[in-house]
Specification:
This protein has about 160 residues and is α+β, with helices and mostly antiparallel strands. Helices cover about 25% and strands about 25% of the residues.
């Protein structure tokens, strides 16, 4: 719920409250993202939504640089530990892009990190690693710093 709520509202609803808010969005058919499964086990999550529905985009130094109307944003990527380093990231990113384009997106935007070393601690890679986006067909549109990029793919 972090990018969907102002910080004060997110903090006020932390834990079960945010789970309930997210569940309510799901029941309202809000576009929230995609899951990847291995058999019946969820192994990955990619949060993707229309950018204008994400409250945090308006204030974020990182995410406010583009403003196309039909842009969707990938704001979180989670891969179960045992599935990391197995190309699941680029797979779920590609599926998220297909989902967005099928639902009216013209552009999908992402805000991945660039590791200074060969291995980045997982906790810092919650928006994904740039190489996974490159493998999924994204291009760099802006370099915000030596460790942050804005990448896009167009329909």
């Amino acid at each position: 719920m972090t990018p969907r709520l102002p910080a004060a509202a997110y903090n006020k609803s932390k834990g079960e409250g945010n789970k309930e808010l997210f569940h309510n969005l799901l029941l309202a058919n809000e576009p929230l993202g995609v899951l990847a499964y291995n058999n019946k086990e969820a192994i990955a999550w990619c949060s993707i939504s229309p950018k204008q529905r994400l409250n945090d985009m308006k204030k974020s130094r990182m995410m406010s640089h583009t403003g196309e109307e039909n842009t969707w944003s990938i704001v979180c990527l989670f891969i179960k530990k045992e599935w990391r380093m197995k190309r699941v990231s680029s797979y779920i990113i590609s599926r998220a892009v297909e989902y967005a384009f099928a639902n009216g997106a013209e552009i999908v935007e992402a805000y991945p990190v660039v590791s200074k070393n060969d291995r980045m601690p997982d906790v810092f890679a919650w928006t994904g690693i740039w190489k996974s986006y490159e493998k999924a067909g994204f291009s760099v549109v802006k370099k915000l710093s030596e460790t942050r990029l804005i990448m896009q793919i167009h329909s």
